[in-house]
Write a structure and sequence with these properties.
single chain; alpha+beta; 2 helices; 224 residues; elongated; two-stranded antiparallel ribbon; disordered C terminus; 8-stranded antiparallel β-barrel; disordered N terminus
Length: 224
């Protein structure tokens, strides 16, 4: 009976190791994505994205995909909820007090992944009379995954690959500027938080007017 008991115990251990870990919820921190006007792509810089026993100290990422036409809009259009997918370039993070990185997909000990931001708010695009720029805010939902290597004992190579699931939510503020007869998205700031969903929706519905008015009051720097 001992071999059978050993076999059952080993099976439970293997199943436990194979079971996916619960996703880490990002409860605070900020990520800023900048869209170069007239150039393809986006550069995202994130820092101090914190969850339980987890901290992204720094991250840069590039655009993978952007659903819909939210990057270029015209006055009177309705910007509907859309997704922004990014791929991390270089990442440094702490997990359970252990630092990983800085690393990228091409590192000896690679850190790769995918980030997905899903906007939840619709907004009507204002006319050009509001000024050279306007902005609006929307609640967002976030999902991501970081794939990284745990080094083998005494080796610089990859001993085991780990997939770390991430989730989160917060408020995104996106800025547009006039260019070529259209509004062009230039920057999005993602602020992670853990308020009630109803609070996020309220903020998202109020802030478009507030941001547009504040932009209108600022002096224009386009001519400089």
């Amino acid at each position: 009976m001992r071999p059978a008991r050993w076999l059952i115990s080993s099976t439970f251990i293997l199943l436990a190791l194979a079971a996916p870990a619960a996703a880490i919820s990002i409860g605070s921190g900020t990520a800023v994505a900048r869209f170069p006007v007239g150039a393809f792509g986006v550069g995202l810089v994130a820092s101090n994205l914190a969850g339980t026993n987890f901290l992204i100290e720094s991250m840069t990422a590039g655009l993978d995909a952007m659903s819909g036409s939210a990057s270029v809009v015209l006055p009177g259009e309705i910007v509907t909820p859309f997704n922004v997918s990014l791929q991390p370039d270089v990442t440094t993070f702490l997990l359970d007090g252990v630092q990983h990185g800085p690393g990228s997909c091409s590192s000896v000990q690679p850190i790769c992944g995918a980030l997905d931001f899903r906007f939840q708010q619709s907004v009507r695009v204002p006319g050009f009379d509001v000024g050279p720029s306007f902005g609006f805010s929307s609640p967002f939902l976030f999902d991501g995954i970081l794939s990284f290597c745990v080094p083998a004992d005494g080796s610089l190579g990859c001993g085991a690959e780990v997939d770390l699931a991430l989730t989160g939510q917060g408020l995104a503020s996106i800025t547009y500027v006039q260019s070529g007869g259209a509004w062009i998205a230039t920057e999005t700031e993602y602020t992670f938080a853990t308020p009630e969903p109803a609070t996020l929706l309220l903020l998202g519905s109020v802030l478009p007017l507030t941001v547009a008015l504040s932009r209108r009051a600022r002096p224009s720097h386009e001519s400089k």
